[in-house]
Amino acid sequence: MPVKEIKKQVYQNFESGYHCAEVVAKTIIDNFSTASCHEAVKASSCFGGVIAGTTEDLCGAFTGGVIALGVLVGRENPGEAMTEGAELVKEYKAWFLEQFGSTNCQTLLEGFYDKEGMIECVKLTADATAFLAKLLNAFEKKKEIDMDAFCNQPRESVALGTCPFSGCSC
């Protein structure tokens, strides 16, 4: 889906009453999965305004993106490797830091006070969602498979008691 359409969905989801973390999770999952994943949006709901609205922790848009990536490329069984998920989250985090300078909600909000306040937060959420869509489109091309099919592929196993992220460049 074109970036313009992704951003349009982001704004529609905000207008429907979702907050940043829910918006990113819902928009990405709705575009990359045919399965209904209301649980992921529900899980994202506790990250709006960060954890319990304190704004002292991770940005909700960043967290919603990580939750969406977990739904789409996360493992389902113990003992499976997390190479793909780890690499995608690492790339998302690097991009987020490069674009916005922080993943901390309070730090980001302080930077918005001189501008248009929460409008800047909504723009950040739209940009983050669009980047995730591009990242996942590239992943699908690289794997030559759509996300729904990817979830059903067997994963590399790791020895019990070892880090499931091993094997990635993290």
Q: Could you say how many structural domains there are in total?
A: 1
- What is the strand content? under 5%
Counting helices, strands and paired strands, the structural category is mainly alpha
Distance between the termini: 29 Å
Q: How would a crystallographer describe the biggest sheet?
A: none
How would you describe the oligomerization state of the chains in this entry?
single chain
Spatial extent as radius of gyration: 16 Å
pLDDT averaged residue by residue: 84
Treating each run of at least 4 consecutive H or I residues as one helix, how many helices? 8
Helix share, percent: 55-70%
Describe the overall structure.
The structure is a single chain. The chain is mainly α. The chain has one domain (3-145). The protein contains eight helices and no strands. Helix 1 packs across helix 2 and helix 5 (83-100) packs antiparallel against helix 7 (118-143). The chain is globular and about 50 Å long.
